[in-house]
Design goal:
Oligomer: single chain
Shape: globular
Distance between the termini: 33 Å
Amino acid sequence: MRLVSFSRRGASERALGASVGDRILDLSVAAEALAPGLDERGRLRTLDGLIQDWEQGLPLARTVTDRAAEAKGATLEKLAPAFHLATQVTLHPPVSRPGAFRDFYGFEAHVKNARARRGLPVPSEWYEFPAFYFSNPGAFIGDGAAMKKPAWTEALDYELEIACVIGVRARDVAPDRWRSVVAGFTILNDWSARDVQRREMAIGLGPAKGKDFATSLGPALVTLDELEPSRRGDHYDLAMEARVDGATLSRGNVKDLHYTFGQMIARASQDVYLFPGDVIGSGTVGTGCLLELGPEAHPWLQPGDEVALEIERLGTLTNTVV
């Protein structure tokens, strides 16, 4: 399934939707139209709520979506208020405020390229375990939202990443069990202020302020079954691309991850609980940011720049810097 958090244009209340062709199906409204009381526990009201009750809620969401997609005659007429054109809704991050956001450093090419720009080798410790940092769970924005450039940076950068959302409470997850705790995947843009990041990490801490002002997530939460044709063991063969103002700057593939999501989730859950809604990012794909590409490819981002990140089967996440 392709699940979205959306609101109708002009409305503030968020709803849970499923992509059906070029339309968004409001699952709560559809459930009521199909059978009053079908969603008596309100599992289908919001995507945040569905993730919190994933094991019970996902089968219900599938049932409603399948029945709505097959509806005809009078039933289809009753469902009309539940369908919205994708162009007539505002999308929000699949998770509005996760309990935790861990971003890993999983692509070897990115590590090599970024450190080579500073004349540094890859530290041997990087090969010993998957490393991550915690970022701000209160700074997520969705597809189509404006990204406000902080006044205190002159080195604004994008980062092309894939992320998973945790669907069940779990601790000490074995690397080969990771799929049982993941709700789905989405696209992540870990916006970065490189000048600030460089200075604070010279102290031996961070990244912090160089990262915590905005993170884009979306456009949809795509369940694992949708990605099965592209799965190769614990890797996924999914093309990745980043464009600025329509010009392609970055290309990569999810399969190039050095550390699998199984290894990253095992590390993240070691001796601690992961909770439904927690977000785990892959880290930047090789060539997936301006820091790697250098000023010869494109200057640091400025207001007016449109950044579009695309990952095969996941869609396109677009934001404009303001």
